[in-house]
Structures are given as C-alpha cells and as structure tokens.
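User: Hi! Is it possible to get a structure for several chains at once, not just one? Here's what I have:
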Amino acid sequence: MYQQEMVTKMTDIMASFVGHIGKKLPDDVIAKLDELAKKETSPLAKTLYETMTRNQNLAVALDRPSCQDTGVLQFWVKCGTGFPLIDEVEALLKEAVVKATFETPLRHNSVETFDEVNTKRNVGKGTPTVFWDIVPHSDQCEIYAYMAGGGCTLPGKAMVLMPGAGYEGVTQFVLDQMTSYGLNACPPLLVGVGVATSVETAALLSKKALMRPLGSHNPNARAAEMERLLEDGINAIGLGPQGMGGSASVMGVHIENTARHPSAIGVAVNVGCWSHRRGHIVFDRDLNVTCDTHSTFRR
Amino acid sequence: MVEIRDGKKVLITPVSAEDLEDINIGDIIYLDGDLMTCRDVAHRRLVEGGRELPYDIRDKAIFHAGPIVRPIEGQEDAYEMVSVGPTTSMRMEKFEYEFTKLTGVRVIVGKGGMKENTERACREFGAIHCVFPAGCAVVAATEVERIAEHHWDELGMPETLWCCKVKEFGPLIVSIDAKGRNMFEENKVRFNERKDAAVEEICKHVSFIK
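Assistant: Yes, the chains can be modeled jointly so their relative placement is included. Here is the combined structure:
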C-alpha cells in the first residue's frame, strides 16, 4: 500500500471508530450498569436506570450519538517507533475528528480560547487532545479514544499536598470532590485518581486511569487496596444514578501512580460519567485492527 | 395547564403559578408545549448584557442543553433534533434569579442541582427546576416534535436558542419546587454525613507513611 492510501485508510477507520463510541457504550460499562441497576430498589432510581437503558437502545436503533455532548476528543496514543505511520498519526487523528463531526454527527465542541469562537469542526488549537507514549521496538499503534464531555470534566481537580497530609489527605481530597461536584457529573461515575508529585503528573495519570477496563486493579497491592476502600466509601455515600440517591455511586475507582518527590504528594481526580465513551483500538503495521472494548465495532 | 394522562402528570404550556402548587420535589412529571434550549451565553447576554431574548418564554419552559441538530434535506431553514440531553444546571445558577425575574419562565429543565438563587426565584416568581435524566439525549430528542424557531445562531450549535415543540417530554424529576424546597441540597446534607463517616473509615487503613 502506498503511504497516502494507508493514511486515508487509518483516517477512515478512526473516524468510524469515533462515531461508534459515541453511539454504543463499551462492553464493560454496559455490564457494570446492568449490575448496578439490579441493586436499586427505589422507584426513582429504577426509573432512571430504565430511561438510561432505553436511551442506549434508541441510540443504536436510530443510529445517533447516545449523549448530545460528544465531548472534546482525546486520544492517548501508545505508538511503536517502528509503526509506519508514526509521523502521520497526529494529523490524521485531527482529520478523522473533522470527518466524524459531519458523518456521525458530533456536536461542535471546540471553542478557540480568547477569540471565543466555535470552530464548528471540533478541532482547534491543540484539539483534539493527543497524549503520546512512544514505545521502543514495536511496530504497532495502540489508541484510546475518549469523548471528554463537559459535565464529567467539571469535577476535575488537582493539587499538591504536604506529605503530612498523607494518604488520609488523598482520601479527603477525593471524597470532597464526590459530594461537591461529582453528584452533578452523571453518576454512577468512574473515578480516576492520580498520585504523583506535581499537578500535571497527577492530572495526566488521573485521566489515563479512566482508560483502564472496569474491574481492573492497580498492580501495587496497597494502591489496589486503596481503590477498593475508596470504591466502598464512595458507594456508601449513595449518590445513586444521576446523583439523586441510590444504592451505589460509582462504576469503579482507578488509581494510577508514579514515584514522588519526598516533599510533595501530587493528587488529582478526573471522573467519567455513566455514559463513559472510551474505546481502545490497536493497529498493526499493515493496519489490521483489533478492538477489545467494543464487540460491536466492525470494520 | 395540568393534565393527568395514563397516570402521568403532564404540564402543558402556558403554565401558571397555580399549576405548580401541587408539585413537590421528587415528583416525576412530563411537559407538553414550548421548550427552548438556553444555556451559558444566552443567560449572560440577558442578565449581564441587558439584551432581550428574541423569543418570549413567559409561562413556558427552558432546557439547559446544547443539542446536536441537523438540517432537514429538501427544506429551507429547517432542522431536526438528533440528540439533546441536559447540561449541568449549576453553571447557570449565578444568573437564574435575574433570568427568571426578567423572562417569567415557569419550568427550568437541566441536570444536577442548583442553589439559593434558583430556590429564591422559584419561590418568589412561581417556577420549578426539574432534572431530565442526563445522558439520555436520544430519548429527549424523540420527544421533540419539531424545532419551530431558532435564534442567536452565531453562538454555534450548542448555544443557539432552539425553540422546540415537545410532547410528553420527560421523565422530569422535580428538584426545586415552587415552595423553594431543593432536593439536591436536602440530599447533600445526608451525602456529606455519610462522606465524613466514609473518610474516617478509610483513614484507618491508609497510613502508608510511617
């Protein structure tokens, strides 16, 4: 295949993948929502879950984005240095977003700052967001695509704690965000927590934490234990679906961490809403595709 | 007007203050009639900029929402509602008292809670705030019969005022009633008590710095 043909092919696949994740939730999210819905007993919580399920079915039947806020597109690219299109990936992702904006259709969600003008194409200075991880000795390209909606972006917060605050301070920080902002961010939430040194390292980890499959745990035993403690603790608050009360609050809590400076504990929270639209797709060097998040995605 | 239809309580625009008297927080209701999308910039233009809304919403409803619409092929200046769920109402809280006072809107639909400005507006002017289940944008779109008018298009698709005719639009969960009771704020007291207990419990197990 010529280079240009390959670029066109990958652009088309990504545009259709973006469209798909806007219309159909990932398999793990659907399973978790079903599990949480079954635990609800109050008529209000049941009505809410029923409406949510009906909405997801209608979105597929009518081929429409299930939520009107199709977000700012964010891509976390783990690209092998030997991937043939490594030089083209960032530009083609931008092109794929423009294509998806008209084909899906997506809402126009890119407003140039200071000029305060909507570009009406979903791309602008620095959007879509592309986070890069370069993988040596690999010729494949792995992409997480995420629709960062406004509602679930609002609770995002990062700060640097003094070590004296400890992991107790991390706990307080996370739980405070749940009752102040989290309840308006379309629970049941997926909560991403970053623990590192500074605001930007913690914040980036808290977003990457949202890409992990539901039910997965941090490989560090203490971090995994803290994930479980936070999940149980936030569930005990009983935010329920839509923050209107119920038996659970979250689909999960994921912690991602790095080592830290001895004088600082950077902590950040990012949340995903119940309509957690993230997809994971892997291209090999010949652009053969695998997708482990959406059994419904067909090329 | 209020109508009970197949066991559903349906508000029909124009809505009067009396229509809202028997509606309480936690009730599930539906809406027939006029519903205009209205969010951040429109609130700011009216309240801070002193610009009059180009569409009269007295005794009608607004929806804190920024939809996806598409042109209807073969028709001039006609749009179809594709996907329209509620957006975070709290962003409009700082404007909502003045907004309600100036416009005479009766039903405010959005997502999540609002606070004292909106409570005061609901109490003083006879209005309610309701939640449409968030993320359920296709359900909402199918309850929009048509888009009758659209204004302030220069703001872009999400911020344009889309003036819709709706039929049994809901379920709408009443979160602030015309007496000023606020379901989210009442829930929050309980949530915060439980949060304090959860923090105390978790902190027994996370003393990793020794």
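Residues 2-183 of chain B form a domain with the fumarase fold (CATH 3.20.130.10). Chain B touches chain A through 56 residues (CB under 8 Å).

User: Great, thank you!
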